[in-house]
Amino acid sequence: MSRLIELWTGDDGESHYAEREFDIPIQDALRVHATVTPAGGTYEWHTAPHRQYVITLTGTLRFTTRGGDEFVVAPGDVLLAHDTVGGGHRWELIDDQPWTRIYVELPQ
Asked: Is 71 helix (H, G, I), strand (E, B) or coil?
């Protein structure tokens, strides 16, 4: 079953996450594109460049917030990332698959 995970910047300026009910409203998209990161990939501390959905097709990742919270994203999961300011998050691939994902960039 697919999950919707929301990642946002809290009043403390840090990234936070929560699993939400899988109910994605119909909305305009600014851009849709796909990206692949080879197995073993990582991305150090950063914020989301846009408010966006990130739909994982292959690969399993561990996300970490600066507060030390961790969550796993697996194929079929949808991440709503809008922690566009603050301390940000990082991720690392934790299986032997590339991370194939689709980005749906949303209006702010």
From this structure: strand
